[in-house]
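User: Hey, quick favor. My workstation is busy. Could you predict this chain's structure for me?
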Amino acid sequence: MEIYCTRPNCPRPVNVFSDLDGAQVLMLAANTGTLDKALQVVLVNRKRLKLLGGDDVYTPKTLEIGADEAVGMIVGVPWHIDADPKSDFSQQSRKLWGADVNWRTALAYDAVRSLIAALQFNPTRTGIQQTLSSSNFSTTAASGIVRFLPSGAVFPPFITAGIRSSSAAWFQSRTNCRCD
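Assistant: No problem, here it is.
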């Protein structure tokens, strides 16, 4: 059963869990516009079902609002600062910004590093496309070695982050995931 809470007048999901007999996991595929409704589902769930979330659920707001009800939730993100805390990017970004950066900042950095590397090979629009799609292309960036799959998808390791306790920040673990 899927629960949709994207419409403006979507009622608060109070009794939906009686219809989920046999379910073991609840996936929250929220975006920034639907995160508040997804967090209502977290609260109403009361730890009955395991929770998975997409990358937009990876936010301090989830820790604040979800609190104890969000403990154990796992989300998939393309990068986490604690995956390699001694990396140049992690150290330099902390120094520059005076705080930890998130996966969006890291992937923006990866994109720029990839573009710069491609420009060095062939600084034309077609040359950049050919360089980035080459199986020999790779560059070092925030998420490590960045390369692209034949599908065009980027291939860094995949990170899962979870909530250990309501008073702690996200924890992470690295897994290798092929997404082609």
